Amino acid sequence: MEGLLQSVERDLSIDSRQLALAPGGTHVVALVPVRWLANLRERKLPPGPCPRPEGLGEAETRTLLQRSVQKLPAGWTRVEVHGLRKQKLAYPLVLGSSPPSEEHSGLPETFTRFMRDTAAQNYRNLWHGAYHAHGRPYSHSNVPLEGSALDAVRQALQKVFGCPFLQVGKGAQCLSPAREAPSAPRAGIVCPNLLRAEALIESPEMLYVIYPHVQYCLHDVVTFSPAKLSNSHAKVLFILFHVLQAMDACHRQGLACGALSLCHVAIDEKLCSQLQLDLSAYEAHEEEETKPTRTIPETEPQSALEPRKGEELMYPICQEELRSLVLDWVHGRVSNFHYLMQLNWLAGRRWGDPNYHPVLPWVVDFTTENGRFRDLRKSKFRLNKGDKQLDFTYEMTRQAFVASGGGSGGEPPHVPHHISDVLSDITYYVYTARRTPRAVLCGHVRAQWEPHEYPASMERMQSWTPDECIPEFYTDPTIFRSIHPDMPDLDVPAWCSSGEDFVVAHRALLESREVSQDLHHWIDLTFGYKLQGKEAVKEKNVCLHLVDNHTHLTSYGVVQLFDQPHPQRLVGPPALTPEPPVIPRPLIQRVRETSGREDIPCQLADGTNGLVLEATPCEAPWGGDRPLGGDDDLEQATEALDSISLAGKAADQPCPSSLQASGHPFSSTSTTRLGRRNKAGGVDSGDGDEGKIVLPEGFNPLQALEELEKFGNFMARGLCGKMEAPEQCPAKPALKLTDLFQRDMQALGVLVAEIVFAARVRMLRPHAPLWERFLTVRGFCSRYPKEIPIPLQPVLETLLQLSEPMGSPLTKRQGAGPLFLYRPISWGLPPPSPTQLLSPYSSVVTFPSYFPSLYKFILLYQTRKVEDEVQGRELVFQLWQQLDGILQEITPEGLEILLPFVLSLMSEDHTAVYTAWYLFEPIARALGPKNANKYLLKPLIGAYENPCHLHGRFYLYTDCFVAQLMVRLGLQPFLSHLLPHVLQVLAGVETSQEKTKCLGGTTEDEEIGEGDEGQGPCAFGEAIQMEGDPGSSGLELLDYTSGVSFHDQTDLPESEDFQAGLYVSGSPQPQEPEALSLGRLSDKSSTSDASLGEDRPGDEIGLTRDKSSQDLKQSEGSEEEEEEEDEEIVGQGGDVGEEEEEEEEDEQDSTPAVSELTLSDPGVSTDTVLPNDSGNGEEEEDLSDQSEVKEQKILLDTACKTVRWLSAKLGPTVTSRYVARNLLRLLTSCYVGATRQQFMGSSSDTSPLSSGNIYQKRPVLGDVASVPVLGCLMHIACLYGEPVLTYQYLPYISYLVAPGGGGGPSRLNSRKEAGLLAAVTLTQKIIVYLSDTTLMDILPRISHEVLLPVLSSLTSLVTGFPGGAQARTVLCVKTISLIALICLRIGQEMVQQHLSETVATFFQVFSLVHELQCQALRPDTPSPNEGHVLEVPFSDGQQRAVDPALMDELQKVFTLEMAYMTYVPFSCLLGDVIQKIVPNHGLVGQLAGQYLESASPVGQDPMNLAPMPSASPEQDPQGRGVNHDDGNSGTFGSVLVGNRIQIPVDTQPESPSPLGPSSGVCGSVGGLCEMGGEENSLKRDLPRCAHGLSGNWLAYWQYEIGVSQHDAHFHFHQIRLQSFLGHSGAVKCVAPLGNEDFFLSGSKDRTVRLWPLYNCGDGTSETAPRLIYSQHRKSIFYVSQLEASQQVVSCDGTVHVWDPFTGKTVRTVEAWDSRVPLTAVAVMSAPHTSITLASADSTLRFVDCRKPGLQHEFRLGGGLNAGLVRSLAVSPSGRSVVAGFSSGFMVLLDTRTGLILRGWPAHEGDILQIKAVEGSILISSSSDHSLTIWKELDQKPTHHYKSPSDPIHTFDLYGSEVVTGTVANKIGVCSMMEPPSQATTKLSSENFRGTLTSLAVLPTKRHLLLGSDNGAIRLLA
């Protein structure tokens, strides 16, 4: 194929160095610019040669052309150029009719239509077989359908790819469609599973198809990635499904696919395949090219039919050859056209001679579509003039002849005759007037030029002329195009679109059966015995040239070739037409009555009469002798045929352009004219004769013998020869398109076999021909039949005919034809076709029922383009609508195909959130928790982590969606991996516009994850190994592109019921509504007083717009050493990862909006703030900012409600370990960064101390961000009581403020600095909620573990703050506020007793800074060594380390103003006590006085209102909770007026303050400024709640929050937490639900009860069931839940499947024999949906709840008397099931094949219980007191535990441990790992009464559910 390389270089102008011949030489790979290719796509030819890649050498270019190289230079791409040589496409190709099913391609297929089409196809095939055997040798009706393969391929390619050919090379300038229509839209490809061509190009010698470069093909998959298809027949079938779709589309357009191989199927990671056509199979083989075919010259008459060219080859030169020619024509071996042209040549007629041009008969009159056939028994002259005119002419010339004496005396002037010639010169020039020069026409036709007098149409031409036709009207379309500007083109009939179309159709008419059966009469009239004698007179055909006895010389005339009647062409029996007749009407009526009205949309033409089969007799007259109703009959017959055989539409409609074999009524229906009414019998005459077969009219069984006798006479007398029998092996027929289609199907069979035997066919030489591949795979199929998967056995048998004996393939002899011939009917079906194999009613390929809907789903995904969120949501919604239909029947193998498409939606920004919302729930339901974690967890995390837009993100934070996450992923994975992402939005970290910038780099304070955390240092974008499940990590995923899903509004009522169950009824504390409807998700937060005191999540949300806010996506900071020390305090759990942010100064953007918002009362809801915001009209804030603020407000509001709902749902221990811990860490993140530490509304020239009082200073931005976090923390405290504050929050605060290790100078990192701020803020929040008793009890701890460490950092002379003076100032203000709040709570006396050291420590710093100033210890230049520390002596006699570099920072913080702002309030608050506890009170007072003096003269004292913000009565409304709280707070020793500090007016200047309004912003004393209204109280009581921790619950909770998450052992402490009483019989089974908030119990009392698992009381309370199911009739021994549907399965001998939300029965499965009850049940984990049932006869059955009946049935006994099946267990993968028998025998069965993998005697007693674990591990317990751990296929157990006294009758799993229970009420913990260990605990009678009957572990909550024989169930820990 080097010629292809050269042709591409020449025609496409691509440098040879950019071209490479592909292996096998099938195509050329080219390296081209992207722009060059774009021009081709736009149908624009590049003006010059293809550019060369710059800077790349030849070797580099060669490398880039290799398939394995993926990275190309920018702007360059690769294409594949496939070429076809035109000279190889010059052979004839017979085009067939379109497939019968084409008309129904847009309609859903029905079984009736499939059967009818199959029957019709079988009928046609059988008829065609009989015709080819008995009629074809005598007919040549297919010859007119022979067109050039080149034309067929060109036309089909343009249809398939939807684009025309671009012309290059010679003539391209005028032929290029790009120049004619440069902007013409390109049509779409007919099938998306066809590899789209970039362009089609035609040169003078070649056809090119430009394909994009195929990266991966199916050959790569089976060769290099066989695991991609292993263990999944569905994947192979899905690829086959795609290939068949592509083949079907090609076949419908008349294009064969070629010798397909694995390399022709392009495939991607999602297994979406596209078929690449093998066009090289169209090219003729060499042996075919050497044999010239006779049909080729016929299409080029001017060059091939002239006598001088190839006469010795083309024309007979002796009588022997004439005999041969006649024999060939009679037996159908040559065409009518060819035979007539030979007769013309024999008669001496010359091409182009106007007087003696070859003649052919006119065969139709062109009046109707395809015309009416003429009567060939009469000459055209006779037909035109009429018999009367000819008789008159003959009689007049005869009389003149007689009168002249019969020719005596010279030549008579008149001789009796009828015609003068068959073609005159005038007629010839009229025929060719459009191509003849005007001068010639004027010289021969008419001297005066009258162009409009020439016939304008073919119909007019045929009716006008008395002469015969010329060959040009059959061969040359140019004869219709006029060269005269004033003469229009010759019009072709309306049923032809062009001259080319007419020529093809006209030629087909000449070859039709109607013409063939009468053509011998026309030969007799034109060249035969009817030119002279009596026959000539009889036929009115006496020719003047033959009877005038002229003596003058002439060079033309009429020549008689035969003197005997010419034999008729053998066309077979008259009734044996190429196309079958229709079935009689009565039979069709019966079919139609049962088939349904929709299958036959159009009515039959003939009322109630039966159709009869008729045939036109051979001697039927034409013209007037034919019945007048012939045309009507023809139309009726055609309509009847269409409506019967093709279900209401004609697949065989006339289509001359495509040359359909049955496309012309003249070829079939004129001989089988149907629908003629029985006029004698009327409408009812046929009733008695229904079903009769009526023979054709004129049926003559002797006709064939008569014709044979005539033929013998002609050969003997006319040609002096003898009649010979036809050759047994006639000339090879032209190749048919149907033959190519059959070869396609055989190539498909070879391709499927190569997939099956991929490893074996590698020994086949590369690019072997199809026949060689066929023989190879056929041999494999016969030698290794067991290797063929069962679903592929029928298709291979059908396509490759494996059961048939096979000789040498026909293709070895026939080139491009089929390998072998299919039977007309095989197993009741016609030869295979893509349409047949794709039909759901065909048994050849058993495609799963969900394939069509899955195909539509993928097609929609591939065809829709998403450019914005609206389109993304629309696409996802449409996919969701289709998804339900897929999942109803999908199998696990199908899910593997579907999942990558769902996951990839998560990689697109515009669809990620909506995919999670819509598609997560149905997909995860089908997958099951294990697979949902494996595939969906990482994409879900990506949806939370990487939001591109705020719009719609609140969906991911709704409680209904979070509930779906918990149910479908499992509680533990949700808590570990997704809960941190749900919580992190509370800190406002995701509103940052520059979040990606912050994440792009790190600061010097970048910190590493906490060493003691459960997941270790790990960013959320990285893979996190899930705790306790190393084998199924949810984040160590394959590189799928992501996917998530949702339960839509239509399913929300169920979700609401579910949520209602998650809340504890009767909770006294006010909380958000339980059932959170979607309609309320966007509501603004209300200002209701029933908010439990927590900060409303919606308050001041707009303040979180700051552009450098912190994102919590990486692990927490560099406090690893400190956090490891506090491991017991902090604990483990899914922590929120946090990252240090870069400190960026963005106040310019954030401050304006912030200051505007802060002017409103913080106690007022954001509902008020936002309208005020817009009302004030910030010009610089555009609409997008406003919408973003509103969207963020909705997001935060939704997240807060969800977190509160979660806190109540999860229970105290899980909430504390996961929710509270993460919230505490988030609180620190709220203060990270310089931006978060800026005072709200402050400016550079205004002191932040100027607003508010000592207790309530102006807030910083971090305070606003912390509002939702603090609100949720306080909500948890309200739920579970004061212990949460004292035992969890305060220890964490102590951990945050604890000083770092090591001495000497140090510098805080940014997270430590933020931790100090968060600790002080949270402590101030906690103090308000602590009772007086508790506050006094822990006051020393607060002082020593919180206040003093904070003050140590605050007043340190050697420790610098990363935030500088600003951060230290904020911490100072907050610390003083906290100390003041505590002083207010406890009074002066308690302050002196407990806080004197704290207060003194703070005020001492003023003395130290003052002394340093006096000593002038201020370096003029910054020291290069910041760690340089000086030991400085102070006035108290001590030497302290001082860092000179910190002097500026300290002096900026502890200023005169600070002294004034702190000392004056404390002096008023403590009175004389301050002099006792503050040694340097004199100095501080002096500093305060200096500030006052310095500020007074100016007249603008910014401090005038600072110490007394609430002194005026009009300020009281801002402190509306003060007096009330004072009355009931019980503060110790308070002598204040209310709870405010009254500063004497005379101590303050009365000058007004410019910042006066700011004082009202911050409210009044008693709280932080972000707390409004009720938050201003000194003390608030925690509401009493039913979930409050007390008694055993409190003891257990205190233990749990200190347990490390790394501790994988189950610790049993016998702490009784709850009792569940209600069963009246023994509890036989308990089963907790996945979220561990409910559990099921089955009892002997024949009921199943659903119980809630919420904490209540002190451990002695009793809980009532939520639902009771009482439909069972016997004792219940099994209860469980189906993972996918969440339905409950319970069994008492009959299996009940019921809805746990409504209690309604969904389905019952009874024993198949009442004498053989069900003895064991097990449910299979998702994605399987089956229930496994074992009956007393050792039979195992599988039932799918979605479908009726059984799935499988396997016999387990196998001849062994093993007893009853006591227990069943299904492996987590669902691939095996193990059954335990009463004899101790265990059987392992493969669920996919039903084969028994293993059977062994496992125990000596009854098998009591079996469980299957990940890793093919089985655990069994027996009545022989043993518990054994097995590997599935290992002979010996891995562990064996023996109970000394009692059998282990119940056990459950906790990680790698087994928790066991015995009838002696002993709880044991056994390890499945090495080394083996066992611990046993005896249950005390106080905690558990009765005998233990059942046991279940709650793994996340670490609880035990124990059922007893007295019906009681206990929850212990």
Question: Could you please describe the fold and organization of this structure?
Answer:
This protein is an alpha+beta fold and 1917 residues long. The chain has a 6-stranded mixed beta sheet. Helix 36 runs parallel beside helix 38. The model is unreliable at 99-104, 141-145, 173-183, 287-317, 591-688, 990-1181, 1419-1425 and 1498-1575 (pLDDT under 50).
Topology:
Layout: H1 2-12, E1 19-21, E2 28-33, H2 34-41, H3 58-64, E3 76-85, E4 92-94, H4 111-135, E5 146-148, H5 149-161, E6 165-167, H6 172-175, H7 177-180, E7 199-202, E8 206-212, H8 218-224, H9 233-252, E9 265-267, E10 273-275, H10 286-290, H11 295-298, H12 301-304, H13 311-314, H14 319-330, H15 336-346, H16 380-385, H17 387-403, H18 425-431, H19 438-444, H20 458-464, H21 472-475, H22 499-510, H23 513-526, H24 533-538, H25 544-547, H26 585-595, H27 630-645, H28 665-668, H29 703-718, E11 735-736, H30 737-756, H31 770-783, H32 793-800, H33 811-814, H34 834-838, H35 851-863, H36 869-887, H37 892-904, H38 912-927, H39 929-945, H40 959-969, H41 971-984, H42 995-1000, H43 1052-1062, H44 1120-1125, H45 1127-1130, H46 1147-1157, H47 1166-1175, H48 1183-1210, H49 1212-1229, E12 1252-1253, E13 1256-1257, H50 1261-1265, H51 1267-1280, H52 1283-1297, E14 1306-1307, H53 1310-1329, H54 1332-1354, E15 1359-1360, H55 1364-1394, H56 1396-1414, E16 1430-1433, E17 1439-1442, H57 1447-1453, H58 1456-1470, H59 1473-1477, H60 1481-1495, H61 1522-1528, H62 1556-1561, H63 1591-1600, ...
Parallel strand pairs: 4-11, 6-7, 14-15, 18-22
Antiparallel strand pairs: 1-2, 2-3, 3-8, 4-5, 7-8, 9-10, 12-13, 16-17, 18-46, 19-20, 20-21, 21-23, 24-25, 25-26, 26-27, 28-29, 29-30, 30-31, 32-33, 33-34, 34-35, 36-37, 37-38, 38-39, 40-41, 41-42, 42-43, 44-45, 45-46
